Amino acid sequence: MSDLAAIQGWLSSVQATMSGLASQVQQAAPTGDFASVFSEAQAVLAGGPASTGGAAGATQPSGGTVASQLGTPAPVTALAGAGVPAAAPSASTVVATAERYLGTPYVWGGSTPAGFDCSGLVQYVYGQLGVALPRTSELQATSGTAVATLAQAQPGDLVLYAGSDGTPASPGHVGIYIGNGQMIDAPQSGTVVSIQPVGTPVAIRRVLPAATGAAASPGGGPTGVPSAYATIFAAAASRYGVPIGLLEAVAQVESGYNPNAVSTVGAQGLMQLMPATAAGLGVNPFDPAQAVDGAAQLLSGYLATYGSTPLALAAYNAGPAAIAQYGGVPPYPQTQAYIQAVTQIVGGGS
Fold first, then answer.
1. Residue 84 has pLDDT above 60, yes or no
2. Annotated active-site positions, please?
3. Which of 23, 90, 275, 279 lies at 20 to 30 Å from 201 by C-alpha?
């Protein structure tokens, strides 16, 4: 692809993004969830035209993106006063957000769900949660605070590597630590975003802001539940006999309470219901009240069928067929990480 074609393609993406921005803001108005809208726009602006080719862990061509040459837009952070909770995202929310992009192809210079390179994935995931990070792994290695050893690392930390185009002092590859010696990253050309052994990073950075101590939601659920949804969760939990904390935790991990979320595999809305599942339940997945009602129905049925919260969560994430095939929780890293993230929130962890 020529430089001119790349620039023209990027400008078309910017134009399309800006054209749709007004309608997205209008859709987000009822819940005040403006952060994800502007993060999406920022990702297009910051990404610049993608180049082809490249080596493992590379971050940008030497000339930088068009966005960097024209001036990068101001970082998108939490929009205080616009209805977005001021609380910092939890580590489990970071992990869950990164998991949404498992299977996304590696693209040199990619910084959107159409394709990511390593630092593009990291910037996009954190941008979705209102945390602004630089575009390249070299600069991300200077963000936040240093973590001395891997033993002290926490889920949500950045793990950095020299890479084929970097050095220990200026790393060329980055991933998101998810715990248990694993990370999510975009490895190299010809691969997809995946869960990998963390190995031996040359640097670890903690970039999550400190928690602000948001109040717990009604019923003892996880912190940070938007007030607009509190009664919805309470009503559905009562109607179907599902623990409200479990229902809220599923929403936090599935979408970060974003009612307009759409995953790379097509899951939709606050509770990330697949279209066929939503149709079978008779609910609109983009309507928060209907989505929570449908999810509560599913979880109630799974809890009754399996008598186990981990199995119910596995069924919600991977489907009952996977439970039947493996006689229990399937050996899918994504499903196992999902169960851990939800149960950690329910248990009061970060």
1. no
2. 254
3. 90
